[in-house]
């Protein structure tokens, strides 16, 4: 039987800020953009959360709810650095680590567990929490079970500094009382539809007959059914198919000058083109990622007439996408160029977090176009 940990750092950006600046410790910290320039909250420290402040809330609202909150501008490079340290600790416990974003990962700790010798999943999890705290100062919430999705739900239940172990055999009972929307793959829309059918909890869902699943979920029926029963056998993936090649850069000072933006975009496009060529990949979709002075981050994408790794078509399309976003007075903190939608079918496999400028380390909603719903 597998033993899988899901680990998620607590109030990640805010905790890093509190570590680096002792004056912020114990205080409500709001990491994000400026309230006066329509900035949003990236995250809030746990001291700010009782006021109702949360990620993605307009900073203006956050300041109204929590006037004593201290606004701190994000330092993404520092967060990446801390993330690397944490992932290194994780890799001391097992080679099988699947990072999901800068602050969360799955770990397959089956090898580290040996119940006959007294090495229980609980002990491994406690040791992991202790070492992360000792070596980075951060606290991590951990869920442990035989399944990725059960562990993911478990890690969220006692945040911050949480630890929830779901013993094998208890999965169904553990999941049963939870709202159906907590299940991985059930978005708010689906949850609403299920509620309308009287399915409120994961337990309600698990008790439905197989043909009901087929009718409601079509091709996804079997995987949703297994998940609802806490019985999926999804392995922890240490390798990942390259779905996009991208490069991005943050400027020391915001750039508004069209020519300078053009030059940066050219550089990014040739970097991406070179790396595509090196990997023998050709892509059709070109994406430009932008972060504005107020930290609003979004991307725009468009499709080439045919798959390519040539710098010219990539550069031209990227430039067209960026040009559409240039308005008087708008300045940029970050630009990125990516190519995806590969054609050759031989998608290369690689270890996560190794490709310089790979956006996968950044939260996915930043990279996907705003119109694409998250899974
Ligand atoms: N983040 C962001 N925008 C969002 C959500 C998150 O910029 N809409 C960033 C800031 C977070 C980090 O990603 O610190 C990790 O996201 P989490 O959802 O894990 O949130 P936290 O770690 O901040 O808090 P929690 O203790 O709830 O995990
Ligand atoms: Mg977190």
TrEMBL record:
Keywords, comma-separated and alphabetical: Cytoplasm, DNA damage, DNA repair, DNA replication, DNA-binding, DNA-directed DNA polymerase, Magnesium, Metal-binding, Mutator protein, Nucleotidyltransferase, Transferase
Family matches, as Pfam families: IMS, IMS_C, IMS_HHH
Domain UmuC: 4-187
EC number: 2.7.7.7
GO terms (BP aspect): DNA repair; DNA replication; error-prone translesion synthesis
UniProt-listed SUPFAM superfamilies: DNA/RNA polymerases, Lesion bypass DNA polymerase (Y-family), little finger domain
Annotated catalysed reactions: DNA(n) + a 2'-deoxyribonucleoside 5'-triphosphate = DNA(n+1) + diphosphate
Keyword Lyase tagged: no
Enzyme class: transferase
Predominant localisation class: cytoplasm
Cofactors (names): Mg(2+)
Gene3D superfamilies linked: 3.30.70.270, 3.40.1170.60, 5' to 3' exonuclease, C-terminal subdomain, DNA polymerase, Y-family, little finger domain
InterPro entries to which the protein is assigned, alphabetical: DNA/RNA_pol_sf (IPR043502), DNA_pol_Y-fam_lit_finger_sf (IPR036775), DNA_pol_Y-fam_little_finger (IPR017961), DNA_polymerase-Y (IPR050116), DNApol_IV (IPR022880), PolY_HhH_motif (IPR024728), Rev_trsase/Diguanyl_cyclase (IPR043128), UmuC (IPR001126)
Localization: Cytoplasm
GO MF: damaged DNA binding; DNA-directed DNA polymerase activity; metal ion binding
GO cellular component, one term: cytosol
Classification via HAMAP family: DNApol_IV
UniProt subunit comment: Monomer.
Family: Belongs to the DNA polymerase type-Y family.
Protein name: DNA polymerase kappa
Species whose genome carries this gene: Geodia barretti (Barrett's horny sponge)
């Amino acid at each position: 039987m597998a033993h899988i940990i899901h680990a998620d750092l607590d109030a990640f950006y805010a905790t890093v800020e509190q570590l680096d600046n002792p004056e912020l410790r114990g205080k409500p910290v709001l990491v994000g953009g400026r309230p006066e320039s329509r900035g949003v909250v990236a995250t809030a420290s746990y001291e700010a959360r009782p006021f109702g402040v949360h990620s993605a809330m307009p900073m203006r609202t956050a300041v109204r709810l929590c006037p004593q909150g201290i606004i701190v501008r994000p330092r993404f490079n520092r967060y990446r650095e801390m993330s690397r340290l944490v992932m290194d600790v994780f890799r001391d416990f097992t080679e099988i680590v699947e990072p999901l974003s800068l602050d969360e990962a799955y770990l397959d700790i089956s090898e580290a567990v040996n119940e006959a010798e007294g090495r229980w999943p609980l002990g491994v999890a406690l040791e992991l929490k202790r070492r992360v705290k000792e070596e980075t100062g951060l606290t991590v919430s951990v869920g442990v079970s035989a399944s990725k999705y059960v562990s993911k739900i478990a890690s969220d239940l006692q945040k911050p500094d949480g630890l929830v172990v779901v013993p094998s055999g208890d999965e169904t009972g553990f999941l049963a009382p939870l709202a159906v929307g907590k299940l991985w793959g059930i978005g708010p829309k689906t949850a609403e539809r299920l509620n309308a059918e009287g399915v409120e909890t994961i337990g309600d869902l698990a008790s439905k007959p197989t043909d009901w699943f087929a009718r409601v979920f079509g091709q996804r029926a079997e995987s949703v059914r297994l998940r609802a029963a806490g019985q999926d056998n999804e392995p922890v993936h240490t390798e990942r198919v390259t779905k996009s090649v991208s490069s991005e850069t943050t400027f020391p000072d915001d750039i508004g000058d069209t020519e300078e933006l053009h030059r940066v975009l050219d550089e990014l496009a040739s970097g991406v083109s070179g790396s595509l060529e090196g990997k023998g990949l050709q892509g059709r979709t070109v994406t430009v990622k932008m972060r504005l002075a107020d930290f609003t981050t979004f991307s725009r994408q468009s499709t080439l007439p045919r798959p390519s790794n040539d710098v010219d078509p990539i550069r031209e399309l990227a430039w067209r996408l960026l040009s559409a976003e240039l308005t008087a007075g708008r300045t940029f903190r970050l630009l990125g160029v990516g190519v995806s939608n590969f054609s050759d079918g031989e998608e290369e496999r690689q270890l996560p977090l190794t490709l310089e400028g790979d956006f996968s380390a950044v939260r996915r909603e930043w990279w996907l176009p705003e119109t694409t719903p998250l899974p």
